[in-house]
Amino acid sequence: MKIHEYQAKEIFSRYSIPVTKEIVCYSTDEVCAAAEKLGLPVVVKAQVLAGGRGKAGGVKLARTMDAAREAADQILGMDIKGYTVEKVLVAEGVKFNSEFYVGLTIDRNTKSVILMASAEGGVEIEEVAKDNPEAILKFPIDPDLGMSPFFARKIAFALFSDFSLVKQGADLFQKLYKIFLDTDASLVEINPLVVTDEGKLLALDGKMNFDDNALDRHPDIEALNEPTEDEKKELEAKDSGLTYIRLEGNIGCMVNGAGLAMASMDVIKHYGGNPANFLDIGGSSSPQKVIDAMNLLLSDKNVKVIMINIFGGITRCDDVAHGLVSALDQMKVDIPIVIRLSGTNAEEGLKIISDYNLPTVKSLSEAAQEAIRLVNQVN
Ligand code: GDP
Ligand code: MN
User: Fold this and answer.
1) Averaged confidence pLDDT in the chain
2) Is residue 379, in this structure, part of any structural domain at all?
3) pLDDT of residue 279
4) Is 177 a catalytic residue?
5) Is the domain of 201 the same as that of 310?
6) Catalytic: 222?
7) Which of 71, 180, 229, 298 is deepest in the core (most CB within 10 A)?
8) 351 in the same domain as 332
9) Ligand 1 — pocket residues by CB below 6 A?
10) Strands of the chain, DSSP E
């Protein structure tokens, strides 16, 4: 789960990490009032759950009231990577000498939390990572020792030469690590962390991602969740007992069991097709589940063919077939369906399907190839 910059900075300031004074605004008038209150210049920043806002024109420095108004007009309603800007952050404009990058995440190679830091922070950090990776320093943190004062100073010495900054940096790294552990974060990032004209470290931006599986322990954080349209669908699916993950392809998949669902996607890929989703309708399947699943697949306009792959164990193929037939009676499906049923009550199931004049196939590879053939016919 992701949160907005202003929410991350609220958490930072709870741990007394220095952040800019700032106000969240939902309209141009609110932006003007905020600029009045904070004093010019201000920075108007789009609050969307995507990075690279600066480059997309979503961060603007305003030296006058007119400029603040203009920035608000431009940024509110803007589209950034598919997100519409509904709120902006108005922050006091800060003069700074240098921009650093600091990030904490989990590193699978070292099986530890890792702190990444760079003296080349700012909007170009992705380019630095690509073209000049040695400019990003990496410090795996021993899980038993944690971020000891000694280790924090070692990192700070690698980054700063001024002793006051070393002290501020070491203090900040310890606090960031504590935030990371306390909140079950998967990412905590400050980019840029700036050195102000007064020689103080200040978090100008903030980013946090959280481990979804740990959200139960953090109701206050979970309450900040703003699911995207895709994520809303995934949550709805969960409520109907379905596990659904939307993907980019055009072959809608309905499968029972997570392993078989993964295998079905692999087989589609193997034959050169692209699955539109992962969908596990679960072990024991009622007709209602099949109806819910069909509705879910059909709500994705990219889906050109539906491939149903059922292996009956506890699930009975005739149950699925009944569900499918009653679903088709209730809804208008104008795309082809490929059905493979095998296992418990497969024969009964196949009979129901063919009595309904729907074609069936014998194997998974046949199903995948037929689905791909039908997709190619549509395109
Ligand atoms: P991002 O592009 O989504 O990461 O947004 P940031 O919050 O990092 O802002 C992008 C850039 O805008 C920063 O790297 C800074 O160079 C600049 N910026 C942000 N806030 C201020 C500020 O208060 N004063 C000045 N002068 N520049 C700022
Ligand atoms: Mn940034």
Assistant:
1) 94
2) no
3) 96
4) no
5) no
6) no
7) 71
8) yes
9) 43, 45, 51-54, 59, 61, 91, 93-94, 99, 122-123, 191-192, 204-205
10) 22-25, 42-46, 59-62, 79-80, 83-84, 88-92, 96-107, 112-118, 136-141, 185-196, 201-203, 207-210, 243-246, 251-255, 277-280, 305-312, 337-343, 360-361
